[in-house]
Amino acid sequence: MTGSRHERLANTRLYLIATADRAPAPSPDWLARVRAAVEGGVGAVQLRQKGASTAVRRVWLDQLRDVVGPEVLLLVNDDLGAVHQAHGALLADGLHLGRADAEALGGHGGSHAERRHRGLAHARGALGPELLLGTSTRTAAEITAALAAGADHVGFGAMSVSTTKPGAPPARPEELARCLKRFPGLPIFPIGGVNLATLLAWVTLGARQAAVGSAVLQASDPQASAAALSELFTHNIA
């Protein structure tokens, strides 16, 4: 795949949220599952490793890159420092900042929205224009604010019950449809409880991309699961 990171993300159908534990290094089985998901059609992988140190995340990202190869986009969740090695070498193609972590990066003072804006703007400044910056949204107003702060793609949801974030407030399907029409050139990845039925519903609303987690990574056959979801896009997007 050629093109800039932004062009490649725009052409990515399946974005894998690869949730992991805080072990010092990934297990061979976990790496094999991520690799199988990529072989099934995943085009971007986000390492989501809550509670791990930056040093541990760097180890995982380094090993993930070897497994997924140079053509798959690799992002890290909520850790700006892990995007690069300590000596400056690039480890990830970008960063995803959830609401709380964007606010934390934005420091003290002001409203939640103001802190979130400052956090995203700080991350954009640190990443520069070529690396990717995503964040979590569930409304058109949140997307507008995220873009103003420097984000270039968004996760949208949770659209339905998610095993990764079981307490996440739901996003409304009609709001997703509205956002897909309002921001036609923006990579918008619906997320939360993805399976063939829910993904078909999102595609019917106009979605051309989606984020997936346990439905692929914890499947008995991650490659087949990813392939089935990818095929749904192929047959339902003109």
What does this protein structure show overall?
- 44% of the residues lie in helices and 17% in strands.
- The chain is built from 10 helices and 8 strands.
- The chain has an 8-stranded parallel beta sheet with strand order 7-6-5-4-3-2-1-8.
- The protein has 238 residues and is of the alpha/beta class.
- It has one domain: Aldolase class I (TIM Barrel), CATH 3.20.20.70.
- The relative contact order is 0.15.
Question: How helix-rich are the residues, as a percent range?
Answer: 40-55%
Q: Span between N and C termini?
A: 21 Å
Order of helices and strands: HEHEHEEHHEHEHEHEHH
Give Rg in angstroms. 17 Å
The number of helical segments is: 10
Question: Main traits of this protein?
Answer:
single chain; 238 residues; 10 helices; eight-stranded parallel β-sheet; alpha/beta; TIM Barrel; 8 strands
Give the helices and strands, then pairings.
Elements lengths: L4 H6 L3 E6 L8 H12 L2 E7 L5 H15 L4 E5 L16 E4 L1 H7 L6 H16 L4 E6 L2 H10 L3 E5 L15 H10 L5 E4 L4 H10 L4 E3 L1 H4 L4 H15 L2
Helix pairs in contact: 2-3, 2-10, 4-5, 5-6, 8-10
